[in-house]
Amino acid sequence: MIKVHPTAIISGNVNLEEDVEIGPYSVIEGSITIGRGTKIGARVSIKGKVSIGEDCKIYDGAVIGEEPQHLKYAGEESEVVIKNRVIVREYVTIHRGTAIGTMKTIIEDDVMLMAYSHVAHDCIVRRGVIMANCATLGGHVEVGEYAFIGGLSAVHQWARVGSYSMVGGLSGVSLDIPPYTRASGQHALLYGINTVGLQRRGFDREVINILKKAYRVLFRSGMLKREATELLMREFGSYQEIRHLVEFINTSKRGVARDAGGKV
Question: Considering 118, 121, 140, 156, which one is annotated as catalytic?
């Protein structure tokens, strides 16, 4: 059964699937699909071309699908794609893509966006990511699966935050943060492997120890990047985590954040 509050405004090509709820004073307008069981709170704005999956929760005041904050945006029909079981807390903003990027802003399954966080145009937020209050992504950012971005942190346009990494609160990320690592600071630096986060996600102790060795080779050995990555592939290339880490570093376009020093 679909429940739409009488004060809500729905216009355009809007498809509401079974058990969708729309709260008071929300505005749903454009080419929009909302999947089964998704709950939309009060005063939510969803506009443009937007697809929202099943069992999502959109809290009061969120704005999804607004035009991107990009001076070269020319009104192209870009979109926002939100997949299943995504939590969007109060006053989160998620903007559509642009022709300069992929034309899509994508939020994958099981993501949690805490209050006042922002996902800009052409971003990809992978499965299981958590963005704490007021965390902000510039355009074209990619955040890997199960990464955590702390409150009041900002990620620069085109930067990447790797899978299973953790960015501390009040951080400024201008360079890529490798998978499995911890980073923080005004100009974010690396502080070793995200050991606690990996343990919570069920990584074996052996794999965590191998990642710590890899970190020391990459960031504390003084070796050139090519030498370090080749050594890791020779010694530990049988581990998919090492292959993923090496590929991330080798494909970095902005460059990778530096080590801050101290114990891993």
Answer: 121
* Contact between residue 31 and residue 12 where contact means Cβ atoms under 8 Å apart: yes
Record the pTM.
0.97
| Residue 139: active-site member | yes
What domain range includes position 232? Answer: 204-250
Given the residues 53, 65, 128, 139, select the one marked as catalytic. Answer: 139
Could you give the number of structural domains in the chain? 2
Q: Are 176 and 255 in contact (CB under 8 A)?
A: yes
Question: Is the pLDDT at 244 greater than 50, yes or no?
Answer: yes
Q: Is residue 180 part of a domain?
A: no
Task: Give the separation between CA 142 and CA 49, rounded to whole angstroms.
Answer: 21
Quick check: is 172 in a domain?
no
- Is there a single domain that holds both residue 139 and residue 10? yes
What distances in angstroms separate CA 222 from CA 8, 145, 215, one per listed residue? 60, 30, 12
At 223, give phi and psi (nearest 5°).
Answer: -75, 155
Residue 264 has pLDDT above 70, yes or no: no
CATH number at residue 90: 2.160.10.10
Active site residue 5: no
Is there a contact between 50 and 68 (Cβ–Cβ < 8 Å)? Answer: no
φ/ψ of 37, rounded to 5, equals: 80, 0
Q: Tell me, what's the pLDDT at 123?
A: 98
Averaged pLDDT, 61-74: 97
Would the pLDDT of 210 be above 60?
Answer: yes
Clarify whether 121 is annotated catalytic: yes
pLDDT for the residue numbered 261? 85
